Amino acid sequence: MSIAGFLDDSIAVAENEFRLFRRNRSAILISLVVLPFFFTASLGAGRGGAGTTYYPTANIPIAWVDNDNSLASIRLWHSLATSHDFRNLIEGYTEQGALAELGTKRIYAVIVVPKGFQNDLENGYQARLILYTDDSEPGVSDQIQATLTTYTQNFDPNVDVQPYLSQLQRQSVAGVGIVTKGAIFAGFNVGLTTVLAIVQIFAGFYEIAGGMSREREDGTYARLLVSPIPIGSIMLGKTLFDVLLSVIRTFTVLAISVYGYGARPNTDILTLLSLSLIIALVTMGIGFVVAALKVGQRAVVIIEFFLILFLFAFSGLIIDSNLLVGASQVISYSLPFTYAFDALKRTILLGRPLLSLTFDLEYMIGSIVATYGLAFVLLHFSRERLIK
Amino acid sequence: MKSFVRDTVGITGKELKQLRRDPVSLILTIMFPILLIGIFIVIVSAFRATTHNVPIVVADLDGSPASNELLNKLTQSRFVHVTQLVQTEDQAYQAVANGQAIGAVVIPQGFGVDLAAGDAFVIVSTDNSKLTSSQFVTEAVNEGAQEIVTQATQEGGVSFGLKLAPIEVITRPVSGRPPTGDPILPGFLGMIAILGAFDDIVNAISRERERGTFPRLALSPVSLFAVYSGKMSATVVLTILRTALMLLIFTLYGLVIRGSLILIFLTTILIAIFTLSLGLTISARIRGTATLTVLEIAMTFPLFSLAGTTTSPLLLAPGGTAIANSLPWTYGNDALRRLIYLGSGFNAIAGDLTILLVSSLILLPIAILLSKRTM
Amino acid sequence: MPEHAIVTEALTKNFGHFTAVDGLNVRVAKGELFGLLGPNGAGKTTTVRMLCTLIEPTRGTANIVGYDIREQAAEVRRQIGVVSEGVSLYKDLSIEENLKLLSTLYEIPRPKAEVRIRELMDMFAFREKATRLVGALSSGWAKKAMICAALLHNPQVLFLDEVTSGLDPQSAIGLQDFTRKQCEQGVTVIWTTHYMGEPEKICDRVGIMFAGRLVQVGTPDELKHSVSELSVVEVETPGLSGGQLEKLKSRLKEMRQVYRVKYADPKLEVSCERTDTLAEEVASTLLEVGARIRAINTKDPTLEEAFIALTGGEEEIDRFLESADRKE
């Protein structure tokens, strides 16, 4: 068969995929609207827009118990209550009363200033604050503690207006200051790297593996197999079509992020598109491999769910790969998605040029070739098994 | 009444038999909890590892005994791994920019003298795209600095004229448990109940429609109400099994479950019933089994953050908090955390359970009506 | 151009330990309408799937218009059209869209494809339905759509696998007539069915398949005459009870080879070994069991009865069908 014939067949398959897609309203909705919108909007809801600043502890009801009743403790209270971070400090509790309320959702923390607070400060000793927290709320305890520490770090009991230094700018422990450099990224921008990738993986895998499964169950795959078209054309045709959808999805996510949530990726659209497509292609390759295993449509969705959970653990989405230990790290470094997510972070957040990420690119492209190659072999030898 | 109960039990038995023969649902029921816990263990193990070996470069521009000592501490640190010593500050920053290291520590000229005067500082530059690794660089420097100061004070009798941070914040969690990340686990139980109930909808309704067995049921003398009761009862049974499995996994993991088991089961059942009601409503419009499964899975991911599973709704952005507070699942997860983690009683979670119950009672009749129309 | 359109040699297919097709040897001439007759599970569809290169044979070879099904599979596919369960059209596309897709896959130039599609639409009176989705068509029209698809590229060999199942009698007859016309135009057709009456009407030759083997091949008349030792006695005997029928069967079996006993009140048919006194024996046995006889008649076996005799009798067939069910 000539290359022109091969390409003609592939384009025919791609056109056919487009016609089928156009007829399937729920597929269009889910692939191009629901998934990109859902994930991006959830990110925005959780992290706030890129341009907005919100203070996580601002509205958390926290009891303030002052057992010292000194000028120093009043100054501390004033410093906290007038800050952005502690707008819901509630006075009037006794220590026992406040502790009794912890765990009931009326208050989530109790700050107790013990007797002798000012005395310790005046005499050059280290004063103490006791912070009781409802640690059943994930992250709340740590967040309140960290935020409170920034206000106590450089507290001066002799002045009314306390100098506030961002925790991230200067810290001081035991007399050695730490000046931190390195861009700080809005939570949304960080999450954008995840959303871009997950949307492609979710949709791409289902479209390829689920689509092949549906064709197999409907008998149209057998129709293709009895025609002269080679398996390579079927794979290429479906890939071409799904690449088009991936491009649309990328633009949808970016449009919502930029115009809806004020995201400012530190790179150009071509880089973002290229990386999205690379992720999509790796996913499609895996999708074809799974399709060769003769799984039903529902099983495909369950597999992709487990795949995404797996990636959350092992591809650096929740915890950096270099922090994983033992076999977990080996798994992490063997996954092409690890390099894909890393590349996304470096480009979107740090503004690195894509072509400078040579190793990441080589690994991802190699993975595409490997998965497609494996899928081709499996589909070829599974002809018989895949017929209804 | 008797025939209603008989019909309901019959339908329940049929649902359970079908599930037993559906490998996909069985795998989901068993593997999802195991996978979730597995992921949790992987992440927690990574954070709790004794060494982290985050690669850093160091530029010692001072060359004093104090800076050498700090360098030694960094070299021995369990948090970081010094991969290279560079000559200039720019080289250090470049190493981070190139991805050769995750952090760069610059000990400026005059560090030794400043330290004795109590005014020393170091510069730490991190690749903050490595969200979790970068924090360990700062911790390593903190730890190193503290050690050299303590050492000098104790051994040399030297007073650096330093002052400690004026206020120490002592944190006492109300549960009395050490900080371990375990508050996430009860939320996982909630997610299992949610995903399980969604999956039951796919089996209970969507698949029956596709196979044409739903009209068969409707044409039999069995009342539609009994049909839905049967399907709901099957979900209740399955939720009990799923909850039991998760609690067993929690126990094996070492999480102490403080609250009443009955209340825990009650909470997960209510979560499941609400989810089933919602699923019934959605399935009236979306009929394909595979499409419904895709939607169910797609909804699961945002729920991890928006329903209070991995992050408290209190810490979300204002929009997120509003969404979280409007989701009945959030109250379910909250109730589970209070039960399991704090050992709260019925009074503490009554409000949460009421929200779940009322939401279900509102949604269920609507769902049944819609399903009946579109059968 | 080879003399025979289809030649198989010891074609065999095993699925694990189960032999679905066992050493099939058959030659089908060009332009012949060859029927493959057999019950469910006999191996007909597996044979078709091997010949149209959907699955590979375990042993043996076959040629389709001179092309080997293993070595020249792509060429084989260009020469064949297939209508079979499990080889479908896209339900979300219209007939026209499906045919256009296939015309590209079969490398039919666009102008020629358009002409051919119009031709087929007219042949099957599809014009008004051209833009309707295949999934919205009734089973009869959907089947016709699949036949269009199979004929689109003017194949030399057509495989019609159980093509009349689910069709109303009128459509089935129309299809049979159409197929005969194709053969007259030189297309070789393999027609598989388990409806005994069909091959008798339209096929040039029939191969009887049973338990994976080709038991007998011949024209319908040859097959009927091959069971010359078979005779069929028809008796009008109203109100025969189940017990009486069982007694009749066991008494007859004591006397001779019985292939089938079929009773639909009041008609009783007994296919068994031919003798000169057969009618009297059946009549006296009926009287012994207390049955009433209104009329009695002897006739020549049909293809159905020939099939039953050649495959070892009704009980043998029942046993085979049971084991086929279990394997499924």
How big is the Rg of chain A?
A: 28 Å
Strand neighbour order, sheet with most strands of chain A: 2-1-3-4
**Terminal CA distance of chain C:** 41 Å
Q: Classify the helix fraction of chain C into a percent range.
A: 25-40%
Strand percentage of chain A lies at: 5-15%
Question: Can you summarize the main beta sheet of chain A?
Answer: 4 strands, mixed
Give, in order, the helices and strands of chain A: HHEHEHEHEHEEHHHHHHHH
Overall pLDDT of chain A, averaged? 88
Summarize the biggest pleated sheet of chain C.
6 strands, mixed
Helical coverage of chain A, percent range:
55-70%
Provide the β-strand percentage band of chain C.
25-35%
Q: Rough shape of chain A?
A: elongated
Name the strands of the widest sheet of chain C in spatial order: 6-7-8-3-9-10
Q: What is the CATH homologous superfamily assignment of the largest domain in chain C?
A: P-loop containing nucleotide triphosphate hydrolases
Unreliable sequence segments of chain A: 167-171
Overall domain count of chain C:
2
What does this protein structure show overall?
The complex is a heterotrimer of chains A (388), B (375) and C (328). By secondary structure, chain A is α/β, with parallel strands linked by helices. Chain A folds into two domains: 8-51 and 186-381; 62-179, abc type-2 transporter like fold (3-Layer(aba) Sandwich), CATH 3.40.1710. Chain A is 61% helix and 7% strand. In chain A, α3 (71-81) links the parallel β1 and β2. In chain A, α7 (187-218) packs antiparallel against α9, α7 (187-218) runs antiparallel to α13 and α9 crosses α10. The model of chain A is unreliable at 167-171 (pLDDT under 50). By secondary structure, chain B is an alpha/beta fold. Chain B has two domains: 2-44 and 177-373, no CATH class; 51-156, abc type-2 transporter like domain (abc type-2 transporter like fold, 3-Layer(aba) Sandwich), CATH 3.40.1710.10. In chain B, strands 2-1-3-4 form a four-stranded mixed β-sheet, sandwiched between helices. The radius of gyration of chain B is 29 Å and the shape is elongated. Chain B starts with a helix and ends with a helix. Chain C folds into two domains: 4-219, 3-Layer(aba) Sandwich (Rossmann fold); 228-300, Alpha-Beta Plaits (2-Layer Sandwich), CATH 3.30.70.100. Chain C is 39% helix and 27% strand. In chain C, the strands form three sheets. Chain C has a six-stranded mixed β-sheet with strand order 6-7-8-3-9-10, sandwiched between helices. In chain C, α8 (220-226) packs across α11. Chains A and B meet through α2, β4, α6, β5 and β6 of A and α2, α4, β4, α6 and β5 of B. β4 (127-133) of chain A pairs parallel with β5 (167-173) of chain B.
